[in-house]
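Take a record:
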Amino acid sequence: MKNVILSIFVVFTLVNCTSSSKKNNAAIGFQPRASEEFQLPNGLNVLLVQDKSLPYISYNMLFKTGGSADPTNESGLANLTAGLIEKGTKGKSANMIANKLGQFAADFNADVHRDYTMFQVGTLSKFQVELLDLFAEVITQPSFPESEIKMLKNQIGSALAKISDNPNAFADRIMDQYIFDGHPYGQPVSGRLRSVSVLTRQDLLSFYSSYYRPNNAILAVVGNYDENIKKIIETKFGKWESGTAAPIKLEAPKTVEQTTIRIVDKPEIVQTQIRIGQIGIPRNHPDYLKLRIANSILGSGFSSRLVSRVRDQLGLTYHISSQIDALMNTGSFEIKTFTKNETAGRAIQETISTFKEYCTNGVSESEVQEAKSFMVGQFPQVVETAEAWAQNLLILRVYGIPDTYLTEFKANVMSITASDVNAVIKKYYTPSKLKIVAFSTADKISEQLKTVGNVEIQNFKDYQ
């Protein structure tokens, strides 16, 4: 199962557009799509986004619960639950469901994020009622057959056993646990070998009963749908019983008082995957846009500071980047790169040195202007299709971001100054208190890293 973090932008209805908003949107080559929202008596929120350009329709169901709801020793539970939704209902077997989807030429997708879970299916408009009937049955009446549970657990287990064979993805997994130490965000959404293997059907039923409720969900219908779509939706989902989702306890992540390094040892690795980071901000934070600009200048473009210094000038890597991951409860900032084992120590030192210089001296007005122009220019691509538009709407409602974010997007971005960016750099980045992960062969790199910070060594199998 893939885990997807969609780009996050807020949407608004056409009714709220002012003349100045329309002018700003036109300037960035973007016009918002009309949408309509309503709620069923059981609490299910429904979003309608009409697009008659093609004879196509899709259904997107988002639950405001993801991997962070997994109990401490049951990581992977949300992921396993989502993966089994289409594997049987009270009236249909997994094969019957698959055959039905085949008849509609429809693919059923399930994506599990830390903060939410999304299901999506689409087909030709002429099959919209039949597909919605199947989709509603799959979502509201899963049976979790023991045979399907065993099969999917085996598949996930096989993937987890081999996960370290992808050094880049495995280093990301390690860093998540390290940087979010003590926080549910540190648990891998896909789970661990030891946790997935002991999950039971009762665990799945309990998780489903707690979180798969209409008042914890939003349904988006996108495309060329019938005029009586509201009545059809009420017929299919109206009898779905609401519930009270169990509260998710999110403790504050543990931080460090000085730079620390965790070497995760796997023998015979010839390159070192490097991750450097610290705790960041939640997605709904007012400084989010300013930090996006700051991050763009530091490490998200070909002309960024990190690329110019560590890759182009020093030749220590083929790729280096930085990113911010803003979530519901908190977030993270992270620098990612890799290098030969022989240059691991120097690559880390030069990366930190570049980061320190960036934090000390700040950014220029010209760098900020370039980053702002890039953000504004890229914005229309994020929501250019009706489905992308609707899925972003769903996610933004999870984070409670107001619709004015989009109407004022260009104005808000262009109003940010170099002083604003330098202020958030000083406020949120602490180059003396970093967490560093090096996924490599420990005896090849450990001596190189002792001058950087306190070093601890762990076995890669602890992260499978």
About this structure: The chain has two domains: 33-237, 260-463. The radius of gyration is 24 Å. Residues 33-237 form a domain with the Cytochrome Bc1 Complex; Chain A, domain 1 fold (CATH 3.30.830.10). The first strand starts at residue 36 and ends at 39.
